[in-house]
Structures are given as structure tokens and as C-alpha cells.
Amino acid sequence: MSYRKYHRYLTNVIDTDKRLIIWNSKGRKAEILDLYYKGIGSDNCQKIESVAMDGARTYISSTTRYAINALIVYDKFHIVQKLNNTVDEVRKSELNKARKNGDERVVELTHSRQRFVLFKNKKNLTEKQSEHLKVLCEINVPIYKAMLLKESFLEIYNYHKVEDAETVLKEWLTQAETSELTAFQELARSFTDKMNYILNWFKKRISSSISEGFNNKIKRLKRMAYGYRDIDYFRLKIHQHCGLLNPKLAT
Fold first, then answer.
1. How far is CA 243 from the centre of its chain?
2. Percent of the chain's residues with pLDDT above 70
3. What torsion, rounded to 10 degrees, do the Cα atoms 237, 240, 243, 244 define?
């Protein structure tokens, strides 16, 4: 998570069974996560069964090197986040085109205040939002394609067998690569490189979505203190509120 502007990050390791932060350190390079694995020792590293993460190459390389028996799972939560971000890139591109061409109708339907309609699950859309999305897809082909690609990818998670999911995923990758949408073509290349980690979710359905809850808690902690000058003290406060140092655990 980002703890300060100008790309200052903390790496947090969470025990998904205990639902607690068990380790953190400043930075997000592979060498940072290496410190955690070295700290717990090779025997404990070999006992780790699965690790859920956001797909960062640095964390994958470190985990592959030390937790040699662990199943690396590209977390569903972060994949959905990637899909939404890619749809948003298409929206921004179409908004810029509409402004240049003076297409006020498309501008009205794609400006930033309307972008959350593209992110929501169709089941959760209000009647007004559904109508908004329907009109937008009718008048803008790229956004229509982007929404189709997003929805068709999410269908993959309805399958239970890895083999079935793999077949549908490969079909989706082909569709994305031939979609003529640059943002989805780039996403398809990224997903192709990490296909095994995506499919591992069907073998071990664990999630790092809990990390987003902790991130919000940590941000609130930072706001309450109006920021921390000493990063090590801030890390200590994180363990007190979100980790094993929490006094509530003693009761």
C-alpha cells in the first residue's frame, strides 16, 4: 500500500486464516518480501501452501524463490480491479475523441462522474444506471466491446473445473487480442504471462481482498494522526491496530 506520495510504499503480509497483518516493511521490491521469507526460515517457507497476491512480478519472483511448495494465486479481487481499470482506459480514450469531435452526447455519458456505472456489476445497477449503460453501448462501439470483454471474463469464475476455466480463458485472450482495443490487448498479454496464477484460483480459492480492508484501516489511522514522520513508528501502530499487537487479542 502507498503510505506517502511520490511512490512511497509498504509491503504487508497477511495471514488470511487469522485475518491479521503478521509482517510489514518499507518498499515493494522483491528484496523486501525476501526479508520476510528469510526471517521465517526455509522450513517454514516450505510449509506455506498458498499465497494470494495482486500479480506484481516482484512478489511472484520472491515467493517462487522461497515458498517453493506454495500455490501462487492471482487474486480474483485484483483481477476485477484490473478489468475495471482497463474499461476506464477505454472510456477516457473515447471521452477525449468525443471532445475533439464535439460529440456532446458521448461526452455527457462518459465524463468522470459517470464512470462508476461501467464498474458496477450489472445485477447491482439501478434502473437509471442500466438505461445509461444501454444508451452508451448503443452509440459507442469501443465501450460496448470493452463491457462485453469485461462481462465475458467474469463468466470464467462460474466454472468449477480448472480445465473448463482454462478453455474459456484462452478463448477470452484471443478475443481481447483481436478486439482492436489497445488497453485490452495489453491486458491480454499480461494475463497470458500469468495464466497459471489465474487458474490456480480454481484449485485454491483464496483471496487477498482482505488487504483492501486493512489498507482502508491504515489510511484512516494515518489521517487520524495527520501523518507519521517516523515510518518505523507508523509500522508499529499498524501492528497494534491490525496485527498481533492488538490489545483486543488478549481478551
1. 22
2. 99
3. 140
d(CA 123, CA 121): 5
> Residue 121 carries which DSSP code?
-
Domain boundaries, the chain: 2-75+206-250, 79-195
Evaluate the CA torsion angle 199, 205, 211, 217 in order and state its sign.
Answer: positive
Query: Rounded to an integer, what distance in angstroms lies between the CA atom of residue 156 and that of residue 172?
Result: 9
Please write the tens of the pLDDT for every residue from 8-17: 888 999 998 8
Please name the helix (run of DSSP H) or strand (run of DSSP E) that holds residue 66, with its range, or none. Answer: helix 57-66
Q: Exposed e or buried b for every residue in 106-141, given b needs 16+ CB within 10 A?
A: bbebbeeebeebbeeeeeeeeeebeebbeebbeebe
Supply the DSSP string of 134-170, one letter for each residue. Answer: HHHHHH-HHHHHHHHHHHHHHGGGG--SHHHHHHHHH
pLDDT for position 251: 47
CA-nearest of 250, 219, 251, 212 to 237 is 219
- CA distances for 91 relative to 62, 95, 135, 227, angstroms: 35, 6, 14, 34
Q: Which residue, chain included where needed, has cell 484449485?
A: 203
